[in-house]
Specification:
The longest helix is centred in the first third of the chain and has 39 residues. The chain starts with a helix and ends with a helix. The radius of gyration is 32 Å and the shape is globular. It is mainly α. Strand 7 and strand 8 form a beta hairpin. The N terminus is likely disordered. Helices cover 59% and strands 7% of the residues. The protein folds into 6 domains: 52 residues, Ribbon (Tumor Necrosis Factor Receptor, subunit A, domain 2); 32 residues, no CATH class; 60 residues; 93 residues, Death Domain, Fas (Orthogonal Bundle), CATH 1.10.533; 96 residues, Death Domain, Fas (Orthogonal Bundle), CATH 1.10.533; 98 residues, Death Domain, Fas, CATH 1.10.533.
Length: 507
């Protein structure tokens, strides 16, 4: 446009411009362009090269504008699904727990997964869970009859066991009656007290403290835990070993046994350590629960957070009823309740009714949501007298809430930026030994099998710092939801990486 304007105003200038244009055309190809269009990219030397097609990667830039870069086919096990200028292909993804391959990975497409038969993908977590089945009337009747007979047999067994226990206790008392004991000096001493001294824990009397309840729950469900985890205990064992929760000899023995026997060995070891061992075991089960569908569903119904809220439901209702708005606003701001529930609760004038609605909502949703409710109550504990002392008495909450941050209160973009700005500190904190973190990221399906092998190879060849840098890049490439899981894995491993403490404190 400018050239045409000058041509009308000065013929001499137009002539010089024409000559200059002809010289430029002689020096470069007609297809050259100052700016690259669609399907092209600009090299550091300023040359516009055509992008490599999907399924190939760039080996070398072109030497002149408009030409195609030198491309090569992606190696087996890798892919690139778009036109690109990448110098290497991405590793194919692996399907997670409860999934199967729908479409195999090709050079131009990543692996596509689908839920296995009788499983359905959960909308919130994205994990494949059992579908809800709708039985017909006949099946319901048969199931009811079967449950009746099972319960009847169970009651008879319990009654028989109780009678045997009482008879054995009575025989021991008769046997010891010939020798003086402390019991003979107190005629009013109860039978339960005698049994407590004999067996440490009275039969039929439930323990009141939190750790004992957990230990009892693990003992009662030992066979189920063996079945649920025994199909593939690798994730469970890797987690325990990565966090040094069991001795190496126990871990190696469990690996050698395999299957349900390996799970039984670990359970027996933790139970033998008493309440502290069962606490560590429960935390491990909670961490890997999403790897085992049946385990996750069991914890949702019997978890510590759910039990704690149920046991204190009446007191919580009274505490919150005084002024529910503090808790209600916090739950809404953190996205813990829907807009519909917030509007309904806000419209209720009776504080006790509002508190009851909130507690019922979280109890029905299971242990994970109850834990989120406890964190919310903890955040506003100063507004509700009585809550603070109760929360401090919850052992499991003390273990989980020592983190200076609640990751759920931050957006995924914020957590992503936090990695970007803290990359150097993360490299220094993690470079000594990547094994625990790589194991955790693999268990949580943040890193695929191929990615784990790639990180380990890079660590062996180029050192831990380069491998850590590459691992962080892989996590960032998996998307924002994986970034939050990455921070959760780092928090779980804070004992293995002491330098992480400074990063969390300055969150």
């Amino acid at each position: 446009m400018n050239f045409m304007t000058k041509r009308r105003s000065s013929p001499g200038l137009a002539l010089r411009g024409t000559i200059l244009l002809m010289v430029c055309c002689a020096l470069q190809e007609p297809s050259a362009a100052k700016e690259c269009g669609d399907g092209f990219y600009k090299t550091p030397r300023g040359v516009c090269c055509r992008l490599c097609p999907a399924g190939t990667f760039k080996v070398k830039d072109c030497t002149s504008d408009g030409r195609k870069a030198l491309c090569d086919l992606c190696p087996k096990g890798t892919f690139l699904h778009r036109d690109n200028q990448d110098e290497k292909c991405s590793w194919c993804s692996s399907c997670g727990s409860g999934e199967e391959v729908a479409v195999n990975c090709s050079v131009a497409q990543d692996t596509m997964c689908r839920c296995m038969e009788r499983l359905k993908r959960d909308g919130d977590s994205g994990i494949c869970l059992p579908e809800e089945t709708h039985s017909d009337a006949t099946s319901v009747v048969l199931a009811a009859v079967l449950i009746f007979f099972v319960l009847t047999a169970l009651v008879l067994l319990i009654v028989n066991f109780n009678m045997k226990q009482k008879w054995l206790t009575f025989k021991r008392m008769l046997k010891r009656s010939d020798t003086p004991t402390n019991y003979e000096h107190d005629e009013n001493l109860s039978l339960v007290h005698i049994m407590r001294n004999e067996h440490k824990v009275p039969f039929g009397v439930q323990r009141s403290n939190d750790s004992s309840d957990t230990m009892q729950l693990i003992q009662e469900n030992k066979e189920n835990l063996k079945t649920w985890i025994g199909t593939d205990p690798s994730a469970f064992l890797e987690h325990l070993n990565g966090l040094n929760l069991i001795p190496r000899r126990v871990h190696q023995a469990a690996v050698d046994k395999g299957g349900e026997e390996s799970v039984e060995l670990v359970l027996d070891h933790c139970i033998s350590q008493g309440e502290s061992g069962c606490e560590k075991l429960w935390d491990a089960l909670y961490s890997v629960r999403k790897q085992y569908v049946q385990l996750w569903m069991w914890i949702q119904k019997h978890g510590e957070a759910l039990r704690a809220i149920r046991d204190k439901e009446s007191d919580l209702k009274l505490w919150i009823a005084k002024d529910p708005k503090h808790l209600l606003l916090l739950l809404m701001s953190r996205g813990r309740i829907s807009n519909e529930l917030f509007t309904e609760a806000k419209s209720i004038r009776d504080g006790a009714e509002c508190a009851e609605l909130l507690l019922k909502y979280f109890i029905e949703r299971g242990n994970d949501d109850c834990l989120r409710l406890l964190f919310a109550v903890q955040a506003v504990r100063d507004e509700y007298p009585g809550v603070k002392e109760w929360l401090e008495g919850l052992g499991f909450l003390r273990r989980l809430s020592t983190c200076p941050v609640d990751l759920n209160s931050y957006s995924e973009n914020f957590l992503r930026d936090k990695i970007r700005f803290q990359t150097r500190k993360l490299l220094l904190a993690l470079r000594d030994d990547l094994t625990p973190l790589v194991s955790q990221l693999h268990i949580r399906n943040i890193l695929t099998d191929n990615s784990v092998r790639e990180v380990k190879r890079m660590q062996a060849r180029q050192g831990s710092e380069k491998a850590t840098q590459h691992m962080v890049e892989l996590v960032m490439a998996r998307g924002r939801p994986r970034v939050k899981q990455f921070w959760e894995a780092l928090w779980d491993l804070r004992e293995s990486y002491p330098d992480l403490k400074d990063i969390f404190e300055k969150f």
